[in-house]
Design brief:
It is globular, with a radius of gyration of 18 Å. The chain is 36% helix and 26% strand. Strand 1 and strand 2 form a beta hairpin. It is an alpha/beta fold and 247 residues long. The chain has one domain: P-loop containing nucleotide triphosphate hydrolases (Rossmann fold). The chain has a 6-stranded mixed beta sheet, sandwiched between helices. Strands 2-1-4-5 form a 4-stranded antiparallel beta sheet, covered by helices on one side. The protein binds adenosine-5'-diphosphate (ADP) and magnesium ion (MG). Adenosine-5'-diphosphate (ADP) binds next to helix 1. The site of adenosine-5'-diphosphate has 10 residues, from helix 1.
Length: 247
């Protein structure tokens, strides 16, 4: 496969904070239609990697290509427009707006709250909100104030807000944190569904959850990729057991 076929191709990526290499000559290739999980001990550089892909942090050296377009010097908002959606560890939703309004303001035509509320809610937006609300198990909560949702439902809503933009690459940092067992089950189904026509990268610690969703797993350690492969292979790797799974 040539590099142009990947959704994401990262090569020789490096970034340092005060001389400490948080990401160190890292390579990563993710296919379209792939659900990739990244695991690894705290401080391995997982969140920093997502920051580099979405543009929150700028790379020092190396290349990040999204559908063969170089991203490493591109502004964050331009990466969003190209189709990259990023979910942070803590859900950032508008607590005082309803579920419907949260999804509505996330539709690309009106990104700011003011702009979107002034913008006429046409049938196109309503239809899109309905589809996404169904996807994220909140179709019967559309009129509820988002602040009243459970923590897990807030996580889903934030994923829904990203889905409103129809991203082709979705980056999710610990999406099941704070979820009940039932919410985790539903989220596994959700992630499998939304990776059918896009690339999804998930950072997660819960190994049972990882087993259920991952096509391939990458293990990060000290800013590098320590191992990559199917879950069974990675779990049996003595280096992985040593730095991560053995603890
Ligand atoms: P992980 O998500 O795998 O737990 P992080 O990517 O958050 O790891 O952090 C990797 C390392 O980089 C840690 O040692 C962390 O302290 C450091 N780091 C991350 N972001 C910054 C920053 N903005 N400034 C300084 N150090 C940072
Ligand atoms: Mg992290």
């Amino acid at each position: 496969m040539s590099n142009t076929d990947f959704a994401l191709a990262i090569e020789d990526l490096t970034v340092s904070f005060d001389g400490f290499k948080a990401i160190d000559s890292l390579n990563l290739y993710v296919d379209r239609n792939e659900l990739r999980v990244i695991i690894g001990p705290n401080g391995a550089g997982k969140t920093t990697l997502l920051d580099l892909i979405c543009g929150k942090t700028k790379a020092e050296t190396g290349s990040i290509k999204f559908k063969n377009t170089e991203l490493s010097r591109m502004a964050e908002y331009k990466r969003v427009r190209l189709g990259i959606g990023r979910k942070f560890q803590t859900p950032s939703i508008y607590e005082n707006l309803t579920v419907f309004q949260n999804l509505e303001v996330s539709f690309p035509k009106g990104r700011s709250v003011m702009g979107a509320l002034a913008f006429k809610c046409d049938d196109e937006v309503k239809a899109r909100v309905q589809v996404v609300a169904d996807d994220i198990f909140l179709a019967d909560r559309l009129d509820l104030e988002a602040g009243l949702l459970s923590h897990g439902q807030k996580q889903w809503l934030e994923i829904g807000m990203l889905l409103m933009q129809s991203p082709e690459l979705l980056l999710l940092d610990e999406p099941i944190a704070g979820m009940s067992a039932r919410e985790r089950d539903l989220t596994a189904d959700l992630l499998k569904r939304i990776s059918i026509n896009r690339a999804v990268i998930v950072i997660e610690h819960d190994m049972d959850f990882v087993k259920r969703i991952a096509h391939k797993v990458n293990v990060m350690h000290q800013g590098k990729m320590l191992a990559e492969g199917p879950m069974e292979q990675v779990q049996a790797d003595p280096r992985v057991i040593d730095v991560y799974l053995g603890h």
